[in-house]
Design goal:
The chain is mostly helical. The chain contains 8 helices and 2 strands. It comes from Mycovorax composti.
Length: 239
């Protein structure tokens, strides 16, 4: 039992890191819905991510077959996992680029947000697509780290619990600070590019990716605090 604790903690930490991308994507979509539907979308999105992972763990033998070569194109072998990663990366790039354009070029900050009927179902379907991509990548990574299925199941359930607790504060923070929303969308673009690169067997260490994301977040946070301090000093009454 003691030998399983370290792999379990390691896998939970890895799942949480991979889950951050999912939380950011869900939070940005939820922010476009009416207030009463945002929490519902977050709960459904994260809940479906757990269900997806548990189902994939139950058919683990099929998941492992995704690492087998399906065909060779221009001398490069392609597996089922790689095709899913490429498709997911292209989808993530498209969505994040579209949202950035909307935020920076089209959106009028003084105009009320227009919510189309059926937006909840549309956003939920987009979350499901990303859930499939992230779940397959997560499960194959987990299989490479541990052999016991109970460790994988436990890691998934614990991770989803952490995501449920963290999703609302993260979503509220992104909603309150527009600059961080654009930064989060840039993160998703970077993740999409990484998925495509991995699909073409170009390995980019994830540590580099998350370090760059963390550093950018820190710089934006410092800038926000500096601007806020300067605004407070200018608004203060002169003696």
């Amino acid at each position: 039992m003691a030998d399983a604790i370290i792999p379990l903690i390691t896998l939970i930490a890895l799942e949480v890191v991979l889950g951050i991308d999912n939380i950011i994507f869900i939070s940005i979509l939820a922010d476009k819905l009416p207030e009463q539907q945002r929490n519902k979308l977050r709960l459904w999105g994260i809940g479906l991510a757990m269900v997806m992972r548990l189902i994939l763990l139950a058919i683990i033998s099929w998941i492992l077959k995704l690492d087998k070569t399906l065909f060779i194109l221009f001398g490069m072998p392609f597996t089922g996992k790689e095709l899913i990663l490429i498709a997911g990366g292209i989808f993530l790039l498209y969505k994040s680029t579209k949202e950035i354009y909307h935020k920076t070029e089209q959106e009028n900050p003084n105009a009320p947000t227009q919510i189309k009927s059926g937006s909840f179902g549309k956003f939920l379907s987009e979350i499901i697509i990303l859930d499939v991509v992230f779940s397959i990548d997560s499960i194959i990574t987990a299989v490479g780290m541990v052999n016991e299925l109970w460790i994988m199941y436990t890691a998934v359930i614990v991770t989803v619990g952490i995501m449920l607790v963290a999703s609302k504060p993260i979503a509220s923070f992104i909603s309150r600070h527009p600059s961080f929303k654009v930064l989060a969308l840039c993160f998703l673009m970077l993740i999409g590019f990484t998925l495509i690169a991995e699909g073409f067997e170009i390995k980019i260490p994830k540590g580099y990716i998350y370090f760059a994301m963390g550093f950018s977040f820190l710089v934006d946070l410092i800038q926000m605090k500096t601007i806020g301090r300067n605004s407070s000093s200018q608004d203060a009454p002169k003696q």
